[in-house]
Amino acid sequence: MRIYEAENYEEMSRKAANILAAQVILKPDCVLGLATGSTPIGTYDELVARCDSGDLDFSEVKTVNLDEYRGLTRDNDQSYYYFMHEHLFDRVNIDPANTNVPDGTEPDADKECARYEALIDSMGGVDIQLLGLGHNGHIGFNEPDSSFAQTTHCVDLTESTIEANKRFFASADDVPRQAYTMGIGTIMKAKKILLIVNGEAKADIVAKAFFGPVTPEVPASILQLHPDVVIVADKAALSKVPEQA
Ligand code: GLP
Predict the structure, then answer these.
(1) What is the 3-state secondary structure (H, E, C) of 140-155?
(2) What is the pTM of this model?
C-alpha cells in the first residue's frame, strides 16, 4: 500500500487524476472502474481539463461503475448514472456505449447483479479501480457486515449511509434504501486500486481501515491485502494515522 499525502482537496484531485491519466496513456483501451460521491468530483474535473487540452483521449476507454441506487431511473438527478454523465461522460470524448453503471431500474436483483459481474469479466477485468471511502468504512456500497460479500449484490443501506447521503435528496425519506454494488471480491479483482479521501471527518476511518485489523466490520480494511493499492489523501484525512506508520 502506497500513500501519497496531498496538501488539500485540489492537490488530492490533481494527483489522483495524474494516476488515472497515466493508466489511460499507457493503455488507451483500458477498463476504468469509477466511483461517485463528493470526493471524486475534483478528480473528474481534472480529467476533463486534460481532455480539453488534448493531453488525454478517452475514445477507446471503457468504464464500469461501482454501484447504483436500486429503483432510481437514469434521469433522476440523484442516480449514479446521472452523476457520471454530469461530471465526466458528457464532458470527455468517451463513447457512451463503453460506459457501464448497474441498472437500478432492473427489479430482478439477482439477474442484474449476475449480468453486471459477468459484464466485468467479459471486459477482461478492471485495470484500475477508483474508490472513495464511506464514514463507516464502506467502499462502493459494501456496508460493515459479518463477512465480505464476494460479487455484485443488492445491499440494504445502513442508517449512517442514508444519513450521510440525505444531503443530496429533499429529505432522508427520499434516499433509496437499497443499492446494487460490486462486491468486495469484485473490487479486489481489480489489477490496481486508487482510493481517494479528504477531510478531517474521514481521519478516524482512515486510521481504522488502513492501520487497524482487517475485518468485514470495516470493509475498506480488506484493501490492506491487495497487492497494488495507492491511497491519495489530504493532510486532514491522514491526521490520525498512528505515528509509527
Ligand atoms: C457513497 C458511495 C461511495 C462513496 C462514499 C463516500 O455512499 N456509494 O462510493 O465513496 O459514499 O462519499 P463521499 O465521497 O461523498 O464522502
Answers:
(1) CCECCCCCCCCCCEEE
(2) 0.96
